Amino acid sequence: MMDTLMFVVLGTLGATTPLLFAALGELVAERSGVLNLSIEGMMATGAAVGFAVTTLSQSHGLGFLAGALAAAALSLAFGVLVLVCLANQVAAGLAIGLLGLGVSALVGKPFEGHTISPLPKLNLLGLAHLPILGPILFGQDVFVYVGVALIAVLTWIFRRTKLGLIIRAVGEAPTAARDIGYPVIAIRFGCVAFGGLLAGSGGAYLSTAYTALWTEGLVAGRGWIAVALVVFGSWIPLRIAIGAYVFGAISLLELSIQGLGLHVPSQFLSALPYIATIIVLAVISRDATYLRLNRPASLGSVFRTDG
Amino acid sequence: MHVTHRFLAIAFALAIAMLGGGSASAQKAKIGVIYPSPIGEVGWAHELDVGRQAIADKLGDKVEFLKAENIPEGPDAQRIMNQMASESPKLIILGSFGYMNDGLRLAAKRPDVDFIHASGYKTTQNFGWFLARNYESAYAAGLAAGYVTKSKVLGVVAAYPIPEVLAMINGLTLGAQKVNADVTVKVVWLNSWFDPNKSQEAARSLVAQKADVLYSLYQDTPEVVSLAEQLGVYVISTSSDMSKYAPKWYLAGPHVNWSKFFVASAESAIAGTFKGEGYWGGMKDGCVSVVAISHDLKPEQRKVVDDAIAAMTAGAFHPMTGPVTSQDGELKLKPGEVMADGPLLGLNWLVKGVETRIPK
Fold first, then answer.
1. Is the pLDDT assigned to residue B15 strictly greater than 70?
2. HSE-up of B103 (CA within 13 Å, CB side)?
3. Would the CB atoms of B197 and A255 count as touching at under 8 Å?
4. Which of A211, B89, B98, B360 has a CA between 20 and 30 Å from the CA of residue B160?
């Protein structure tokens, strides 16, 4: 039983990292008023490109960077569609997402069946060998810590900085933001690209650090879960992170419970991460007024610079 | 994913249209093959394509192939099949269970084309199915697992509890218990055909629960095998030799080979003697074997494994021979009783020693 708990706690941070990256990226884009539904495709592109570059260069860092940049490029294409051509955000997001899945299959094709070494675990402060807490707190790979740091940084940006206020203003009232002199389109482009960068990082983490292989369909719906987490987490970094960690932990718990031989139907267990995440986030976000206040008012609507 | 399928489907249609324009190929017998996944270096579609290659090797210039890979079950498959049929091939090989109903409809319309269908159960005059007795190789791998396990816990990562998969888990368990009576088996059902991350997580969870031999049951990709190498636990795979992904910890490779059956089907289809039947190939038929058995087995242990393989190949031994008790403690096979093919094809229980229940 202890081993099972240890497995879940130890594995949760790693299993959640791709979700966390993608969801936090989507949060920034949505805060600026742009609904980007292409996360799944951008994650797949990041995963395929990241894996290809890691295999060729033997450098995880380079692969990770390439995956992130490839997805960012894709998100810029999305940005051109919705911010310049004023296309419908839902339709454009779905289209770019499908494009991303296609690109990932194409790029990844020659690399199917290859394996690379997974990212090594760190030994922070030399404390990874402490019993129980050592491997959990000090023995994860570097991106797990980057993910945790991102939560803090984004919380700080949106709560305490002018940049955060500007992004929120652009998302709440783009016309007003423009009237007081902020370049709404440019800021939204930046936010969308940042979201792409993080989604690509999440994908690259999956293929280069976590699973250490590429195959078509690797992302397996995680991009959609990330989109849902942003809404259920009511656009607040910490809540999104809690949702992501609950989801990650329950999905691992599900597998462990099966191995323990408890008489619970495995179909129910497979549904459990979704149920638990919805309940947890519904409970912490139950204040409807607060929820409305946090939802970016212009989310998903077209902004005309001449309007 | 869908975009590529569509693209492939269109490209394939164009290719067929262009092929149809030529007349040089008129004398060659055409054979259509449809695979559900890409032909990778290992896995299901790879082994199907090895079988197709055997036809090419045997019949050489007399045949040409209409090949489509990564075709999802459903409308795309139906369209590809119909296009293939318009080329009047002698034989169409349907590489996935889900092609069954579309294939049957087409077979009824086109009595001049013969079909063989993977994993199915329906036959007509020109429509047959093929399946491998993977429980035999699972039994042999189970013997090896029984020898090497120290924790006496084996872990299985499986997709869905279909009869074929249950038979393989039973084979593994009975093999391991034969040489190591207290072995127990834990199973994690993924409830998903394809999610490499989840299968790795499942494998990790099994290792956390003391499993020191993993059985990657019908994962087409080598993620569980390469993870086992990292974690330092033995691993058994399905369909293909995946030993290169775990050079140190690969225990045994249950392997399928469709060559004989595909060649025989192609020959009878071309000769016009094809009969729609079920083919359940085992070791006896050269369809199932075990490759890359680990050198960590001691010579006398290796001999037991080899003897069991020889006995199954000779048809002298059946893994499902009584006494066999189910998980619920019910005596399913009396001492000496051999399970008949009918009940085995519809198997819906697991043997004693498997700790995980079948999801209802």
1. no
2. 30
3. no
4. A211
Residue B114 near residue B92, CB atoms below 8 Å: yes
Cα B117 from Cα A292, distance rounded (Å) = 55
Query: Whats the size of chain A, residue-wise?
Result: 307
Collapsing DSSP to helix, strand or coil, B285 comes out as helix
Nearest Cα to B143, choosing from B256, B304, B319, B311? B304
Other beta carbons within 10 angstroms of residue B49's beta carbon come to 20
CB B206 to CB A220 under 8 A?
Answer: no
Contacts 24+ apart (CB under 8 A), B243-251: B243/B291, B243/B292, B245/A115, B250/B225, B250/B292, B250/B294, B251/B141, B251/B144, B251/B145, B251/B148, B251/B213, B251/B293, B251/B294, B251/B296
**CA–CA separation, B199 and B158 (whole Å):** 8
Instruction: Give the pLDDT of residue B11.
Output: 55
- % of chain B exceeding 70 in pLDDT: 92
As for the ipTM of the complex, it is 0.82
* Closest-CA residue to A296 (of A181, A184, A179): A184
Mutate to test the interface with B, among A5, A255, A256 (most CBs of B within 10 A): A255
Residue written as tokens 């500007």?
A: A166
Q: A266 contacts in B (CB within 8 Å)?
A: 189, 191, 359
Residues A254-284: pLDDT tens digits? 888 887 777 778 788 888 888 888 888 788 7
Report how far residue A139's alpha carbon sits from residue A238's, in angstroms, rounded to the nearest whole number. Answer: 23
Tokens at A116, concatenated: 């690379």
The whole-angstrom separation of Cα B352 and Cα B169 is 11
- On the question of pLDDT at B234 being above 90, the answer is yes
Question: What digits encode the pLDDT tens for the residues B159-209?
Answer: 888 888 999 999 999 999 999 999 999 999 988 767 888 899 999 999 998
Chain B residues in contact with A101 by the CB 8 A cut-off are: 1-4
Supply the pTM of this predicted model: 0.84
Farthest-apart Cα atoms in chain A, separation: 64
